[in-house]
Design goal:
single chain; about 140 residues; mainly alpha; two-stranded antiparallel ribbon; DUF5997
């Protein structure tokens, strides 16, 4: 073994033995939790979130997180999923801002033409994906 390779192995051993907690930006944590970052408490937005903290939030969500998941405002991926359309379909429908659960329910009840069209498109995409998977 060369001296350079020995140093590399020694460095690698030091790196792997020093376990530092993996952290993420609040935006990443909010995305993983399925909530709109701007609606989270200031202490969540202003800090960093460790992997252990994220796991704890997922396992036993505090009241603010349960409330956000229940009532919103919801980020676009969640809005799209609740409406049964794609994120692109949201944009084509003119929805660019987060929506509350109440607003999503109102849109579902109103069932505008663009929403019906996007749902049909999404159904076709899913059907095609299923067909491709069968091959």
């Amino acid at each position: 073994m060369t001296a350079g390779a020995g140093r590399a192995l020694a460095t690698l051993a030091v790196m792997t033995s020093q376990k530092t907690p993996q952290t993420m930006k609040p935006a990443t944590a909010a995305k993983k939790l399925g909530v709109y970052l701007e609606a989270t408490p200031a202490e969540f937005r202003e800090g960093v979130v460790s992997r252990d903290e994220l796991n704890a939030l997922q396992a036993d969500p505090p009241e603010w997180l349960r409330d956000l998941r229940r009532n919103g405002p919801h980020p676009r991926p969640v809005v799209a999923a609740k409406l049964g359309i794609s994120i692109s379909g949201l944009a084509r429908g003119g929805i660019t801002e987060p929506l509350t659960t109440e607003e999503i329910d109102a849109l579902k009840a109103e069932s505008p033409e663009w929403l019906q069209r996007e749902r049909a498109t999404q159904a076709e995409v899913r059907k095609e994906a299923a067909r491709q998977k069968e091959k």
